[in-house]
Amino acid sequence: MKKNFLFQNRTPIQIAVILALCILPFTSIAKADGAPPPDPTVGGVGPYQPQKTNVQMMSETVLIVVPPSPSNVADPKQIKVSASFTMRNQGSTEEQMQVIFPLTRLGYDGFLGQALYQVDISSFAAKADGKSLPISEITTPPEIIATDIEHGFPSEVQWAAFPVTFPVQQEVVFEVEYEMLNPYGEYGEGFTGIAYILETGAGWYGNILSADIILRLPYPVTEEAIRFANPGYVVSGNEIRWNLKNIEPTRQDNLEVRVIHTDLWKSILDWRSRTNQNPNDIDAWVNLGDKYVGLGIHMRDGIISGIDQHFADLAVAARQEVVKLRPESGDAHYKLAEILWFSNPSVKNQLRMGGESTAPEPSLDDPAIQQIFREFQLALSLGATDSLPYLDRVFPQLVITANSITTVTVTSPIITLAPVATNTMIPTVQPTLTPTASPLPTPLPIQPPSSTNNTLLIVVIGLIIIGGVFVYRWRSKLRE
């Protein structure tokens, strides 16, 4: 889909509305981790805005722990978070307030790829200077009235609230602990998603002088296991660390990390170990290739929503090993054709989700495309029955069998003008479909239908209409 698609067939008013919706999400005011209470002059009328305060966040330390898979599969796999905040009242009077902490995203606008963020309120606990604090829950309107229906997120924003007193020029330490849900795991995405909202920290006085964020995983961290992470991190053992200094956080600073799910990564490492120990282990290569495909190609409603080229390349290599070890298997050749098909740049371009692409249009003359068709034909000849996914979308006039690759060419239509009682000329179009087959494995190029005669007919009809209007106006003038 090209970027200018939204502006085709739109009136100026519709275009203005689209632009307003696109700009609106970027106009919100930055807010805080633990944050001051809402401004009382705003109340429930609008989205959360912090009240004025002289309390500054001197430092914060956040530890996020992704636990290993529990022995009891019925237990929820939740992410545990503990955070400590050192605060100092830089004003001249004591401040008492309900500090609030976000339990959900601040709003969902349908445009931005905001992380799925939801805290289990029943697990939330807070302390100030080591003493437990009572917890209440408040709700504020979202920035934009919308509901993330796909993931079941409400439009309102939920906050945990707890009372804290800040004496003048004294440091107060408050701590929070909670469990955060991993909604990504529910949708079979193959990774664990971790989010932490920093932007609400901007509601405190001045800048945050330092922030240390530690993400601890149940396995040694490698770059390969990190699908996405905020820049500036350092990897150490099982941990990913960020150290931030003197910041006024905005939405772009909110932490969003995606790492391969614990169970999936362990499974990949196990299959890798088997192939290293026994390179002729066909089952290990098959399973490893399937795992790689799941991580490399992301499809949604028949559209490629994302490609991880690293894992796509690993999937190709694994499936090539299966073909080498089992050349008589139609399923092996089909699976190799499938991953070559989805990871081909021109096919990705044709099936992609939004955005511009510099990839060329798919061509039957492309040697890489011909290799895919060779593997697919071998698969069919060896008993495979599955079709190459979305072949009719990329090459709508192509038919592939075990013995041939056929293109259907629509020739110029034959038009017969038949007179009727009203002297109205009705065109009768009789398109002729001529199938032409090319021998295996060279496909024939597609010939687009000719539109010359159609264009000529339209021009003639247009001239007749213009002439009729001219004669009508001329006769009207004569009558006058």
- How many individual β-strands? 21
For the largest beta-sheet, the strand count, sense and barrel status come to: 8 strands, mixed
H-E order: HEEEEEEEEEEEEEEHHEEHHHHHEEEEEH
Taking the alpha carbons of the first and last residues, their distance comes to: 56 Å
Question: Radius of gyration from the CA trace?
Answer: 32 Å
| Helix content, binned percent | 25-40%
- Contiguous low-pLDDT stretches (5 residues minimum) are 1-32, 146-152, 412-452
Output the CATH class name of the largest domain: Mainly Beta
Residue-averaged pLDDT: 77
| Domain unit count | 3
How many helices? The count is 9
Strand order of the largest sheet: 5-4-8-2-1-10-13-12
| CATH level-3 fold name of the largest domain | Immunoglobulin-like
CATH architecture of the largest domain: Sandwich
Oligomer: single chain
User: Given the helix and strand composition, which structural class is it?
Assistant: alpha+beta
